[in-house]
């Protein structure tokens, strides 16, 4: 990634994804010491659910992203262990920020 940045000087939003795409699709990491295998998963079907590209297209409700408890789910209806770029959906960002404030408040009260 650093070499890609040095080569392109790209600072635009999303360059990091482009750098990863170059590394993956040009197979530039194959044979690298410490890397045994490289693979991808379709969005919504792995441990990391990347919501970034979905937000501009439809709302949380239109995508049917949440279970009855308000947790983000994968397409198989199981809870997503990791949700990346949830902040692209304002309702999810608002909910997560409120939860973060709640947790930070609890921690502060315990340490005082």
Report what the structure shows.
- With 112 residues, the chain is mainly α.
- The protein has helices spanning 2-8, 15-25, 60-63, 90-111; strands spanning 48-50, 82-84.
- The protein has a two-stranded parallel sheet with strand order 1-2.
- The longest helix is centred in the C-terminal third of the chain and has 22 residues, at 90-111.
- The radius of gyration is 18 Å and the shape is extended.
- The mean pLDDT is 89.
Task: Write out key terms for the chains shown.
two-stranded parallel sheet, 112 residues, mainly alpha
> What amount of the residues lies in strands?
5-15%
Q: What's the mean pLDDT score?
A: 89
- What would you call the quaternary organization? single chain
Instruction: Write down the overall geometry.
Output: extended
Tell me the distance between the termini: 42 Å
Can you write the helix and strand succession as a string? HHEHEH
Report the radius of gyration as a whole number of Å.
Answer: 18 Å
Total DSSP E strands: 2
Which segments are poorly predicted (pLDDT under 50) over 5 or more consecutive residues?
A: none
Short description:
The protein has 112 residues and is mainly alpha-helical. It has helices spanning 2-8, 15-25, 60-63, 90-111, and strands spanning 48-50, 82-84.
Q: What is the topology?
A:
Layout (H helix, E strand, L loop, with lengths): L1 H7 L6 H11 L22 E3 L9 H4 L18 E3 L5 H22 L1
Parallel strand pairs: 1-2
């Amino acid at each position: 990634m650093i070499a890609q940045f040095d080569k392109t000087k790209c600072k635009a939003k999303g360059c990091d994804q482009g750098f990863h795409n170059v590394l993956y699709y040009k197979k530039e990491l194959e044979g690298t010491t410490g890397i045994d295998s490289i693979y991808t998963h379709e969005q919504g079907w792995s441990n990391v659910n990347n919501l970034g590209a979905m937000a501009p297209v439809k709302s949380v409700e239109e995508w049917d992203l949440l279970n009855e408890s308000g947790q983000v789910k994968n397409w198989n209806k199981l809870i997503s262990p990791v949700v990346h770029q949830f902040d692209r959906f304002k309702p999810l960002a608002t909910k997560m920020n409120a939860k973060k404030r709640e947790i930070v408040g609890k921690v502060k009260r315990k340490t005082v």
